[in-house]
Amino acid sequence: MDTAGARGQGLGELLRRSAARVPEKTALVWRDRRESYAELDAAVNRVAHALAERGVEQGDRIAIYARNSREFVLVYFALARLGAVSVPINFMLKGDEIAYILRHSGASGLIVEDGLAAEALVAVKQVGESVIRVRGWIGAPPPDGWEDIARWEDHPDSSEPDIAIGDDDPVQLMYTSGTESRPKGAMLSSRSLIAQYVSAIVDGGMSVDDIEIHALPLYHCAQLHCFLTPDIYLGATSIILGAPDPVTILRTIEQERVTKLFCPPTVWVSLLRSPEFETYDLSSLRKGYYGASIMPVEVLTELAQRLPGVGLTNFYGQTEMAPLATVLGPQDQLSRPGSAGRAALNVETRIVDDEGVPVAPGVVGEIVHRSPQAMLGYWNDPDKTAEAFRDGWFHSGDLGVMDADGYLSVVDRKKDMIKTGGENVASREVEEVLYTHPGVSEAAVIGLAHPYWIEAVTAIVVPRNGTTLSSEELVSHCATRLAGYKVPKYIAFTEELPKNPSGKILKRELRTKYAHLVE
Questions:
Q1: Quick check: is 170 in a domain?
Q2: Predicted structure pTM score
Q3: Would you state the pLDDT for residue 291?
Q4: In a domain, 28, yes or no
């Protein structure tokens, strides 16, 4: 009696079911190639059989070090169908960092994009040539010892592999971004992910008719798990772009009549600032999403003015929640600016103090969640897992405040709270004020070690094109809106802020680069 097979609800089933429902519908657009659900399903099966012939078994960890591409999607689903564990790697990482993830995850295979070859080969050499047994290559002809994955697609068997995969078997190791410390591997199962997809689809107002651009990195859980895989689950159409280039996004919206787009705030800002923003027909766009970092209220207001037909939704969460935790819908964007919304469909969220005791509405504390979406734990790190899961809740490490209606406002990461002169300053509060100045394009606020203040509030600012700003002008601007201890004591100007590919500003790098400001 095969009840497990009959009741299967693994990641690999989602594509198969959409291929059965809408076989002729366009599933994927990559460059000049358009692929139906039936074609994509068959291609994934061929790649899965090829991987199995090369020794990939259930539970094996296979890393993917590549930018966005059709091949990324094929390998991702093929591994899921084998019950293997995909390990997407940030394509901005260097050889030593890649080697750390390969060692930590115990990866026995690596898929590499040709443009990233130099760092990947350094990592493989460090880990040991014999350890990485399965080596796939995307792009140009591969070097010796590597295989062009186009060959895998030539496998004659397009049937689905017959492998029983438990709903709570790990299917992916998502390494945290490491903006503050060494990345940790969050173990995600099909149960975690599909519960999250349901939350994203219902609370995000997604549908089978969506046509969506996927321009942010697929190695990151936001684009991959809040948008691409839910689209596959629904039977919607996905357009893969190699990078979030503003002009390419704008042109693609017009050409493909795109209805749906996710960007972190930094990319929405780049679209608004593009000189070609007004030259393209963006009338098809109906659904816009942001997340990964907090949207400045001034930018939110500008988006509402310049894209009045687009309903904006804020997705807040983190890798360990697969990643969605709370949602602020279009109806609340302007009435509750800056809020992260309320708990998503399959999530419970509360605010607790340092002892884990719930606090009253309006009181700042740590944001904690309880949900089937939560990760299984951190790979090979029982201590960090125990630290994160306490009292039956997942502890996010974010500070927030919740109002009486259950709407959450994220105050800061615990590590981004600046302690200056005995007072706490939320960097986000200062950033919001800086964004109200017409000459500020982007801003990041950090604390720098200071002999008197302990930490000095410091602002790193990108001026708008054609604007000349002075520190005195911005200090004066902040002083009329903030308590004196919150006003930046140091201001530096730069042409751009360092970001990871998901759009998060790397404050760790800023603290290092601008430490010299404190004499």
A1: no
A2: 0.84
A3: 87
A4: no
